[in-house]
Specification:
Subcellular location: Mitochondrion inner membrane
Helix content: 55-70%
Largest sheet: none
Distance between the termini: 119 Å
Main location: mitochondrion
GO molecular function: 4-hydroxy-3-methoxy-5-polyprenylbenzoate decarboxylase activity; zinc ion binding
Catalytic activity: a 4-hydroxy-3-methoxy-5-(all-trans-polyprenyl)benzoate + H(+) = a 2-methoxy-6-(all-trans-polyprenyl)phenol + CO2
Mean pLDDT: 84
Structural class: mainly alpha
Low-confidence stretches: 1-7, 18-30
Shape: globular
Number of strands: 0
Number of helices: 13
Family: Belongs to the COQ4 family.
Length: 292
C-alpha cells in the first residue's frame, strides 16, 4: 500500500491543477464584459462579447443597406463581414487555404496588397490584357485605390484575421478579372459570385441591397448577372488561394480559363447602350414636338 501512495498523491495533485485551470478559464469567460476585456490578440484587435457581436452584425447590416458601394458605407460592410464570419465561416476559408499549396504559402508569407507593395506605374506598363495592367486600368477607370480597405478588428483568431484581410484586399482583383464596375449592380453581381466562391455570409447578406435597384436594373441582374454568378461561383477555383502578386504578368484570359471564370456580360457597355437609346428617344420626341 505504501508504494502506491506517491502515485496517488501525484494523481491528486494533477487533478487539482486541472480543476484549478478549468476554474480559471471559466472565471475568465465570466469576467469578459464591456468593462473588462481581454488583451487584444494582434494590433488593432477589438475583442467583442457575444451580445456586442450580434449588435454589430445587425447595426452594420442595416447601415450598409443604404449604400453597398465602396465609397459609401464600406466600413459598415467590413464590420458586417467580420461580425458574421465567426465562429465557422472564416475558419472554413482558412482551412481551404491550408489545404492548398499556394494557400499555405500565402498564409506563411502574409503579403499585403497596397500601393506600396504593388507599383501601379509598373502595372500600367505591362502588356495589354495582362493581369497587372487589367487591374491597374480597372483602378484608374473606377477612381479607386488599393489603400482604402479597412483593417480587420473584430475577428479574434490572428491567423483568421489575416485571411479576412487578404479576402478584402483581393476584392479589387475579382472586380478587374470579371470586369464588373463599382456601381450597385456590379457590386451585387460580384457579391453573389463571391458568396458561392467563399461562403462568407456578408456576401449573401449584401444582396439585400437589390431593393435599391430600379425595376429595369433588377430585371437585368436576375436575367444576366445572377445566372453568371451561379455558374462561375460554383464552378471556379477558390480565389482566396490565388497568389495575385505572382500572376501580374500573365494573360488575364489564361488566368480566367485556369480558374474557370466566365467573362460576365459587359455591364458598362450595357448601361452605355441604354443611355444612348434613351438619349436618342428624347431627341426624337423633341424633334417631333418641334415639328408640331
Amino acid at each position: 500500500m505504501t508504494s502506491l501512495q506517491p502515485c496517488s498523491t501525484l494523481a491528486r495533485r494533477a487533478l487539482s491543477r486541472h480543476v484549478s485551470l478549468k476554474c480559471q478559464c471559466l472565471s475568465a469567460v465570466r469576467s469578459f464584459s464591456v468593462l473588462n476585456r481581454p488583451p487584444p490578440n494582434y494590433p488593432g484587435h477589438v475583442p467583442l462579447t457575444t451580445i456586442e457581436r450580434g449588435a454589430l452584425a445587425i447595426g452594420s447590416a442595416f447601415g450598409s443597406l443604404v449604400d453597398p458601394r465602396r465609397g459609401g458605407k464600406s466600413y459598415l460592410i467590413a464590420a458586417l463581414g467580420e461580425a458574421t464570419a465567426t465562429p465557422y465561416f472564416i475558419y472554413r476559408l482558412r482551412d481551404a487555404m491550408l489545404a492548398n499549396p499556394t494557400g499555405r504559402r500565402i498564409l506563411r508569407d502574409r503579403p499585403r496588397i497596397t500601393s506600396q507593395t504593388l507599383s501601379l506605374p509598373y502595372l500600367r506598363s505591362l502588356p495589354d490584357n495582362s493581369v497587372g495592367r487589367t487591374y491597374a486600368i480597372w483602378l484608374d477607370r473606377e477612381g479607386v485605390s488599393p489603400d482604402t480597405r479597412d483593417n480587420v478588428q473584430y475577428i479574434d483568431d490572428e491567423e483568421c484575421a489575416y485571411v479576412m484581410q487578404r479576402y478584402r484586399e483581393c476584392h479589387d482583383f475579382y472586380h478587374a478579372v470579371t470586369g464588373l464596375p463599382t456601381v450597385v449592380e456590379g457590386e451585387l453581381a460580384l457579391k453573389a459570385f463571391e458568396f458561392l466562391n467563399t461562403v462568407l455570409p456578408m456576401t449573401a447578406l449584401s444582396l439585400a441591397a437589390m431593393v435599391r435597384l430600379k425595376p429595369a436594373e433588377r430585371e437585368r441582374l436576375f436575367a444576366l448577372h445572377l445566372p453568371w454568378a451561379v455558374r462561375s461561383g460554383l464552378g471556379s477555383e477558390e480565389l482566396i488561394n490565388v497568389y495575385w502578386e505572382e500572376q501580374l504578368e500573365r494573360n488575364v484570359d489564361e488566368l480566367r480559363a485556369e480558374l474557370n471564370i466566365e467573362t460576365p456580360p459587359d455591364l458598362r457597355q450595357i448601361r452605355r447602350m441604354i443611355r444612348q437609346q434613351k438619349k436618342a428617344e428624347r431627341e426624337k420626341r423633341t424633334a417631333q414636338t418641334s415639328a408640331q
